[in-house]
Amino acid sequence: MFAHWIALDPGSNSLRLYDYFNDREVCLKTCIAYDKQKMIALAEQALAYVYQNKKDIKVRYPIKQGDILNDVTPLIRQALKELKVSQNVFKPCFLVCLNEDVSDEQKLKWQQQLAACKVRKVEFITPMEVLQTEQACFIIHAGHSYTEMGIYAHGHEFAHKIIYFGGMGMDEKIKMTIAQKQNCLISNEDASALKEAVSQAFKMNKNPMLQCMAMDRYGKLVNIQIRASDLWPAMEEQILQVVLWAKHCYMNMGSEMKQRLMNNGIMLSGGLANCFGLKEALKHEFDCPIICTTKPECDIIEQMKGLK
C-alpha cells in the first residue's frame, strides 16, 4: 500500500518538515500568538506580538526538549499547507525525530496531535540514530533546548548523554544579564538576536556596542545598549558545560577507541554548532578535527531525507 511519508524535526526553536514524495521542505518558527485562548498568529508572524503590552496577548513556544507543552496542531497544519500535501486520497505518515528522554506519555501526545491533523501513522527515531555512521564516531548535537552526545561504532552504543544546556540556556542567561545591568526585560527573540550578534562579532575579533528594544520597570519600550563582551559570560557557561560532558563521555573509552575517535574527529551538529566558542573549545580540549556542515541546524532533517 502506498504511504506518503513526511519527516519531522520538531525543534524548540524551529519546526522542520520534509515531504519524501514531493521532495519539498518547510521550516517554521516554533511559536504561536494567542489573544486569550484564540490563536491570532503563528510562526514568524507571531513574533510581531512579542512586545504587545496587553495582558491577554501571549506568545507561546509549544515545544521544549521534544515535549509538547501546548497545542502544536496549528503549526503542523500550516506546514502541511505550505508543503501542498493533499489529504483527500492518502493521509500522510510521519517519521518524527525525538531524543531518548522523551517519555511514552509524550510520544502518545505527539500521536494524538498528529492524528488530529489527519496523519494516519507515526514512527519515531532518535537524533543519534539519524546522525551516527558505521565507523567509530563521536557525535555532539547541540540544539536550542538541549545537547545530546554519543559515541558509536558499527551500530553499537558506547556512550550516550543528554544535557539540558544549549541555545535556550544562553538566551535565558542573556535576559538575566540585561535585567541585572539595565534593569529592563527583553524577549526571547531579542536575547537570541543578541547571542547571534555577539557570536558574529567575536568571529571577526570585534567587541561592538549592541542595542535592542526592552521593557523598563514602568512597562515602557526603550532602546538599550550593551557591550558584546558583557554578554559573553552568559554564553560561555553553556559552552563549557557541553565540553565538560563531552570530555566525560570520551574519558570512559578505551585507548584504541579514543584513537579511532580522534582520527575521525567530532561530528558537531545542531543550531548551536555555529555559535562562536563551541567549536573552538572542543578543538582546544580534544585536539582533533571538528566536523561541522555549513548549516548544522538542518543536519537532522537532511539526514532524515535518506531514511524513506
UniProtKB/TrEMBL annotation:
It comes from the Bacteria. InterPro entries: ATPase_NBD, MreB_MamK-like. This is Actin-like protein N-terminal domain-containing protein.
